[in-house]
Specification:
Layout lengths: L1 H32 L5 E10 L4 E12 L3 E3 L1 H10 L3 H23 L4 E5 L2 H4 L4 H12 L6 E6 L7 H13 L3 E7 L6 H4 L6 E4 L1 H5 L5 H16 L3 E4 L5 H9 L4 E2 L10 H9 L4
Parallel strand pairs: 2-4, 4-5, 5-6, 6-7, 7-8, 8-9
Antiparallel strand pairs: 1-2, 1-9, 2-3
Helix pairs in contact: 3-5, 3-11
The protein binds ligand C2E and calcium ion (3 copies).
GO molecular function, one term: cyclic-guanylate-specific phosphodiesterase activity
Protein name: GGDEF-domain containing protein
Keywords: Membrane, Transmembrane, Transmembrane helix
Length: about 280
Amino acid sequence: EAKKIKNTFVFFENSLKDKYLRQSLIEQELRKAITNDEIYMMYQPQFDSNLNFHGVEALVRWENSKLGFVTPDEFIKIAENSGIMASLGNHIISKSLKDIKNIQDSLKKQFHLSINISMKQFIEKEFFNDLLHQIKKVKFKKEYITLEVTENVFIEDIEFIVNLLNRLKKQNLKISLDDFGTGYSSLSLLKKVPIDELKIDKSFIDDIINDVNSLNMAKSIITIGKQLNMSILAEGIETKEQKDLLDTLNCDLYQGYYYSKPLRKEQLKEFLKTTSS
Ligand code: C2E
Ligand code: CA
Ligand code: CA
Ligand code: CA
């Protein structure tokens, strides 16, 4: 029995150690990733209910020689906890604006670009100025840019956040609340913040056909958002049944593998050549 416990302990210790080592290696490699040009963006298309193309969400990718592909869920957290997020975030904005502006110009077609903004990046003092500077530099049309933030930004100084959101709005930028319904949020807060779009989290969409609680959550989110004049985007749509059901609830926009997986910029360009409107 004692031996068993000891083994369990050793196993536990090793796995913690492995976890720590992996995180340190990720942090160490991530610090060089931008200069080594290991970071690139993929773009997932978004559509309205009539299958008109609306725009894309930019999703970061990192391929490293020692680590292979590391998922953003893993490395974004590490970037946030090691002070790398502000520079990584700036790099993400820069790449996304350039890639998409390039495609817009060459296809002579305007469409929306959503960029995920980490809370750590959003609350940086220089965020607003850096962003506007970058937009100006590439001459991107501001009304086509959406910033996706998660509810956890509201944990921060709320006065500061509301003020920042208002300044961004004055610049004609749009704000989307990502993963809505999964994090910290208060409904009374929602009416005080200038939000343009709610993204229904994939976890509700996954079970929407079979689980009445998920369906009711989606219904509530749509009702609340509509009352506050927000547009509603459902993410993680994988089947026609999910899309059809959400259509009956008056959802505005859709994104998911049913429409398209995230695409490299060259793939997106080809995709758009064959997509109407
Ligand atoms: P998210 O912002 O909620 O992004 C949606 C995630 O769902 C993406 O995963 C996307 O590839 C995936 N997805 C989209 N449609 C489907 C579908 O139909 N089925 C399934 N199974 N998955 C789908 P990804 O790219 O691995 O990103 C994971 C998370 O990492 C993102 O969640 C976001 O929180 C973070 N992230 C990704 N790119 C960035 C970025 O550029 N900046 C920041 N700050 N965070 C990012
Ligand atoms: Ca997102
Ligand atoms: Ca999301
Ligand atoms: Ca998510």
